[in-house]
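Lab channel / #folding
Pinned by the channel admin:
"Please post every new chain as: sequence first, then the structure tokens as a reply. Keep commentary short and put observations after the output so the thread stays searchable."

First post following the new format, from NK:
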Amino acid sequence: MLESKTNGGLSRRALFKYGLLGAAALAAGGGISSIDFFRESALAQGMRILRERDLHFLRAIIPVLLQGAVSADEMPKTVEQTLRGMDYSLSHLSPAMLALTEQLMVTLSLPLSRAPLSGIWGRWENASPEDIRRFFKRWQNSPLALLKMGHNSLLQLVPMGWYGNPASWQHCGYPGPPNI
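Reply from TO:
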């Protein structure tokens, strides 16, 4: 009687086993999500959208993407200005685009997803500029369309935050908006 088949072709015993495995997986997922690192990170101080977890990643990639556009001594100030500009721009995205961007940030913040997808096995703060360049090249040349989309998104996010800043205009030859 225990081995009788259900309508789906599974025995009751197999269905029971899968049910137990599913319950165990849900319990494990609930346990993992209760660990502080996996909880939703608090908004970064003074930010509307960017979270503390995002800043580690962004502070690592911004200097690499802006290399040559900013002097080394101006870079720390530029990174913070770019973060504020990014936050402002992100706060004006559509809810759907913002949700995708937040998913990208979470994916790149969690070690379980960051390491295999980016090749950055340690913390972002410890990644060298060359490590970050390899990460971008890896995503740019990936056979997975999703990683290519992530690459393009990141390459648009940083300029979105930086080129809205009047300090960036001289470097790119933009005289600024006309006086009216």
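NK: The mean pLDDT is 83.
TO: also worth noting, Residues 42-168 form one domain.
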